[in-house]
Amino acid sequence: MREFGTYTYRDFAPLSTPFMPATLLEPLPSHPNILLKREDLSETGSHKWRYLKPRLEQLKKEGVTQVVISTSGNAGITASHYGKKLGIKVLCLVSEHGEMDKAAAIEQEGGFLVATSHPIHWAKYFSRKYGIHNLRGSEDPDAIEHYKTLGKEIIEQAPDANAVVNFCSSGISTLGILRSYEEWAIDENNATHIPRFILAQNGRGAGLVHLLKTEELPNGYENEHPGPPDLPLRVGLYRELCRLIGNDWRDAYYVTNDQIDDMQTRFFTARESAASLFIAKYLLRKGTLEGEKVVVIISGKAWTPVDFRPNHSIESIQDADNIYRTFCTI
After folding, report:
1. Topology of domain 49-137+306-329, per CATH?
2. Cα–Cα nearest to 167, from 136, 130, 126, 197
């Protein structure tokens, strides 16, 4: 069997993404009850395809020819990939301090890449002023429905799972997985089986820990990360997570950049996946997951580091309007 990270989407297409034992991973050699749900082996390297592929296909049917998306990387890569296939132009706004390997992958997939200090703000500006559809999953109720397909696959592939570890930012994918358990994980006694959900968060995407477990945040977090820019919206999402999971918020954990970097040095994977694997390893060492069958969702692949800077940037409304005119001519 090939080692972790050497498979490709073509090894499994058109099947659903596979499960693999965590014994393939050096950091978790002695825990055969850990299963990896390999969303990184999807066509675009993350679970974002579950929402963006069908959404773009629907927009194509509606005659849409342009979309805008604010992204840290994976969503932009996925939207650009399927947008190119469907003939939809994708305007991708990334943070000027983001991961440039992902930014380069967006451009390679055909996205029109723009760097800015406020990607969410400018995506909303383009949407309001020019009527471009804004692909923002946390504001699209259909996104939860699409992510339910991931939960259904986990139920089918690992029906006896006791715990699921997932990297969580907006909470949309986790909500989709949880709702799939509500609908499909029903035993012969008509009882619903929802496994323990363990959520990993990092940086500005740590709104859940920020709201509910502030004592776990590292020193200096408030100065460095004042909270996600759409925190009020996420409060509603997190309340729904609370309803589905319960009140035991020991299952939300903050992962520091140093902890993620340490996991990434052990094997080649994305930061999101490294965060989830760190939490799984941490809880196993504590004995918290001893004897349980645990599914760790691996979403987002590690792109080869490159020396890259986007050609376009926004600092003013004039910049934004000029960029939109350029975008329309490509």
Report:
1. Rossmann fold (3.40.50)
2. 197
